[in-house]
Amino acid sequence: MRECEHKIEVAQAHGQVVAVQSDDDGSHLRDEAFAQGIADFENERTQPPPEFSHGDMLRWWNEGYDFAAELDEMSCCSGCNDSTGNPCITHS
Ligand SMILES: [Zn+2]
Hints:
- The structure is a single chain.
- This protein is mainly alpha-helical.
- Helices cover 59% and strands 0% of the residues.
- The longest helix has 21 residues, at 55-75.
- The structure holds zinc ion.
- Zinc ion is lined by residues 74, 77, 79-80, 87-88, 90-91.
């Protein structure tokens, strides 16, 4: 897990940039839920916090969680880290 942490941090930084740039029209809630999903995956929490456990917030939380899970899987995949810089067939 430890060698996977860097790419997750990059994803979180990216999410924060997106959150800063988005207009205040509700999309910040999506970014917040997405970022929370990433953070919860990183902290090995499989359930969303109560405020993210329903409706769109839950959907966005799941998107963030799944995104982090895929990134984590790719960062640990020898096929994705064969020094070509390209994802393997499974993750492309
Ligand atoms: Zn792969």
